[in-house]
Design brief:
Blueprint lengths: L21 H39 L1 H6 L3 E2 L4 E2 L2 H32 L2 H13 L5 H26 L16 H24 L4 H9 L4 H9 L4 H17 L2 H7 L16 H8 L6 H42 L3 H10 L2
Antiparallel strand pairs: 1-2
Helix pairs in contact: 1-12, 3-6, 3-9, 4-6, 5-6, 5-10, 6-9, 6-10, 7-8, 9-12, 10-11, 11-12
Length: about 350
Amino acid sequence: MEAASLPGGDRGILSRSPLARLPDRALKYGLTALAALILALIVYFFVRLVGQARPAFAKEGVFGFVFGNDWNVSAEHFGALPLLLGTLITSALALLIGVPVAVATAVYATELCPLRLRAPLTVLVELLAAVPSVVYGLWGIFFLAPKLQGSEQWVADRLSFIPFIGGGLVTIPNYFITGLVLAIMILPIVSAISREVMSTVPADHKEAALGLGATRWEMIRIAVLPYCRSGIVGGAMLGLGRAIGETIAVTILIGDAPKLGDHLFAQGYSLAAVIANEFGEAQGVHRSALFAAGLVLFVLTLLVNGAARLLVLRAARGTSSAAGKQTSGPTTLLADATAGA
């Protein structure tokens, strides 16, 4: 493009008047201010939560509150360890169940699904995100949990030799139903991100694998999944954040027992559920303890986001090395294909 076609005629950008450069500076400083405002809001939330939680921390101590095992409102003893473990258990179940299904759905939609069915399948999966969480909770507690209670009891009886997994009497609600419903709730998020990343895989990578004799599954394994590793990990971590912060569905499904359940099919409590259930009637130290629970949940979310960032960076480095390995020559790609056959 010639200089005459640029705004300002034949003058260079640096020779323009300060008034002509004002929009660029306004855009730069405006975007900087918005980014700083987001950080300021996070700091403000943290400071306010710390201030509201100070009476509970002064009574129980920070470590006593976080790692205490007794949440007794009438005795004014507040230990959040059962709530924290309930949050982690249900979120981990959601990842274990939901992420493989979401990735498999994304692989089918991008690589195996017929073209005429690809758009309807994508829309149907994404519609899961439009269902309100209270609907998921009511469906899980009134329909899904009674249907699965017999199967859960069979698993608990057969796996009674495994600590926390088997043994005991199945209750409604319980940890497993909560994790299962959360897995359904995070499925559209993880699947959408994985599908978008898989659609960016270069066609020559897949064609090279198929041209060297790899089967469709081998092509997906050596050309698609390594390239998408960072995106899949990022989507899984976003799903984990969604599961940790879910409130209404978890409140309905997990129960209200402020102690760690004896097994996977027992009821428990979570940080979000205890805040939703008890905040309306809380006063004094109890109210401060609920703010402290919110602070623990806030810090847990930040830690998950930080861990997600590290995992994405590590997966991205692995993707770069895999891409370099694939472009190093057809012999390497053929060796990988035959090794996994």
